[in-house]
Amino acid sequence: MKRLLWIVTLLVGANFASADSYVxxxxxxxxxxxxxxxxxxxRGFLEVRSGEAFLRGIGVNYHSAxxxxxAIRLLAETGxxxxxxxxGWGSIPWDEAQVNGHDKHIKVLKLMKQYNGRPTVLxxxxxxxxxxxxxxxxxxxxxxxxxxxxxxxxxxxxxVPGRSGINGLKDYWAAEVxxxxxxxxxxxxxxxxxxxxxxxxDKPLRMATLKYAPLYLVGTxxxxxxxxxxxxYAMMVCDMVKDAGIEDFDIEIWNELSFxxxxxxxxxxxxxxxxxxxxxxxxxxxxxxSSWEMTKRTIEAVKAxxxxxxxxxxxxxTTFYHCPAEKMPPGTDGQTFHPYGTGVRSLPAAETHKDRPxxxxxxYTPTIDIRMSxxxxxxxxxxEGIMRLLNPQAREKKPAGTDRFxxxxxxxxxxxxxxxVTDVPGEWRVKTYCALRSFCLxxxxxxxxxxxxxxxxKPGGFGLLPFDxxxxxxxxxxxxxxxxxxxxxxxxxxVFAGAEPVAKPVKLDVDYxxxxxxxxxFPGDDKHPALSNKDVFAFLPFQTNAKRxxxxxxxxxxxxxxxxxxxxxxxxxKGLGGAAKAVRLIDPVTGKREESKFTGDAARLRLxxxxxxxxxxxxxxxx
Length: 623
Description:
The protein has 3 domains: 2-48 and 498-622, no CATH class; 82-100 and 118-130 and 220-339 and 376-412, no CATH class; 133-210, Elongation Factor Tu (Ef-tu), domain 3 (Beta Barrel). It is built from 10 helices and 29 strands. It has helices at residues 2-12, 51-56, 68-78, 102-114, 221-243, 290-305, 387-390, 424-444, 478-481, 484-495; strands at 49-50, 58-61, 82-86, 118-123, 133-138, 150-152, 164-166, 177-183, 188-191, 205-210, 250-253, 310-313, 334-336, 345-347, 368-370, 406-412, 449-452, 509-515, 520-522, 531-532, 537-539, 542-545, 548-555, 567-574, 580-586, 593-595, 598-600, 604-611, 616-622. Helix 5 runs parallel beside helix 6 (290-305). The protein starts with a helix and ends with a strand. Residues 1-19 have low confidence and may be disordered.
């Protein structure tokens, strides 16, 4: 069999995994811009991570919808220790006196502190309400045809050229088409771009005036004014968090560039090729660019007043590689990722770069529906997989002036319907698997905090909490109302209970082999081998004290909608601090706990472990 694999490797230029070695650095070998359906880059390195840090990294996105005392208590009792909470620039009123909803925000933040939670406060300017703004309606004096570059209004009072505009023509977007000039005598208003469709005079026209212009080029008066307003907003939010009694918190600067981000450039508000300025443009996310410079100024202002606050680069949430860590503004404390990709990806139809077959490392695309709990970014299904950024060598890179650079995943979750799962038990199972697998994999592979998306939602949605949490009594007991993923997360964290910081974790190596038959991820063809469950067996060690490991083990199946029969793997673990005295396997879903038979000495521990498609926890204690 090994000879056959060697022959196939020569034929197709791939380097398939060894049959015996779990750690295989060649799995990280996928040159940019190639992608691969065989490589498992998360198996390219093995680290023993801190179990105490794992407990601190369990987070959730919290969108306050009422009954906050109960919701946050239930989350805390589940084990949540980190909260992502948005306070957008659009929540600042025109007079910039105080954040709208100030008292409610203070209440929520105090509850997070009460339950030992660390807030990551998202600073964002969604183009629906990007900044302080005034919303109003006006009346057209005549119909305006699609493609028109001007309109006539019955009232042009208080319109501000460059700041006032028409709302929501093609998107939830304030001042989507900007008024560039006003003729007060005729009511004619010039537009920044042609109308996308007809406007009728018998219908009110929804409009807004933005207090600050969308981002212009650095050095322009408009940029200076907008950047100054943004920094003022950031400091107002930080002051409010401090008023809630919290000194250790994070600010995440921006959400997702693929969502609501037109305010990042004035170009988005003008006809393509006709911006309001000329000249060379610096890339907006690199030095000299508008978003980079605005972030730099935010970090400088925040650090000057609140040196304990971590300033996190949120611009990388959906564009992981746009600005390398070492080129981010000085003092940036971390960056974030939103991998998602947990819904169905049908291959070969959804393969990237189908028009460039040379980008496919093995020149082979399987026929498979992929819906993985971890998403896609830990693989090389796309070349942009973030194991290129999370492997130990890559994690050494950091911005100037930064001692410790953190990696966050401020959103990751699953919408069961996107996996084709619509029955209630199936929905809860999909979310349970996503939580268990994602927390274990990503935090073992270099992510410091994961905020699961999200705390609460409607039936069938993303949420972890019970759907009726808003109407439950304030004294509801966790044991009576906890959902399946909440119970699984708590059972998982119970295994880590009492974890202590470990100054020098052990360094492990592991060999493994399948005992009995194993399933296939995809079958391959006459020139390409199958990818088997053995190839995606996950061994993810955490150390909880000087003489104890907790090791999530599971098969990283590609289709969460299909259940996997139990399989057995024989492990030889090397590198413990002494001879093992107890080994047990704990299942967070069924609650089953069993002592494991083992052999070996201080040099090697040998045992068989039964695994399935969600993490079970192998607990190893030694003398």
